[in-house]
Structures are given as C-alpha cells and as structure tokens.
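Tutorial, part two.
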Amino acid sequence: MRRALLRTTLASLACLAGLVSAEAAGRRYVAPLDRAEERIVPMYGDLPGCEDPAVLSRLSGSFDSRESTYWGPLQALAYDHVVQIGFRPWGDDFIPRRFCTARVMLNNGIYHRVDYSVRENLGLFGRGWNVNWCVAGLDRELSYAPNCKMARP
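Running the prediction step on this input gives:
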C-alpha cells in the first residue's frame, strides 16, 4: 500500500513539474540586467532624503497608529542622528530604496534606534513612495529579527 501511495505521489509531482515548466516556457524572459528605468513602470530612484519632514512624518504616523491600535500609548516625538546607510544597495535592477537609521525619542522619554527605508512605487496603488520601518526593542513580532537587522541593507 505504501509503494502504491509513493508511486502516485511521484507521478503527481512529475505531472506538476511538467505543467510548471510548460507555463514558464510561455512567459517572456526578462533579463536580470534590465534596469529599473526601462521597465513598464519606470523607477528613477527619485526619493526624498532620510531627514525629509514628509518621510519622518509618515514614519511617525505609521508608528503611532500601530502602537495605539495594538500595543499601547507609545508615540514618536522627535528624531536625531539621522543617517543614510544605503541607496540602491543591490544595484539598478531592483526597486529603488533609500536605507536610513536614526534615533527616535518616544513619549516615555526613552531613545530607540529606528531603521527605515524609503521605497519607490510601493505607495498606495503602486504610486509614489512609502516608508518601511522597524524600531529596535519594539519589534514584538520579530518581523525584522534579530534587533531590526533585516530592515537594513
């Protein structure tokens, strides 16, 4: 009985592999060296800077909203030591990102490191830019573990 089940499973996997390769063969090949600027939705890397008030405002709004909804009364009050740590670190083939780090003072008087990236064409409906962030010590679900390292380039 086990051998029959194994044969059936292997036959199913072989059929699935054939379908996947046939589907992939029908798609247009996109060369990995195509620049982001030459794609259907061009990306030029025209992103605001790390210390831009619009970026920090969006970061604060998103942080405050998450904290008040899920965790508690923390709010971001001020930023200092804002530094860019990378711009398009993986090359021109990828979505343009500006990676930054800063210190944020929260309303409990404690400073935390915040790592964030400003990303092009990842805003609402693929328009504009958005901010992805992680506050060290407050990544409760370990989304960017360890200690927000995965939010950095």
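The longest strand covers residues 76-87. In part three we will examine how such features are distributed along the chain.
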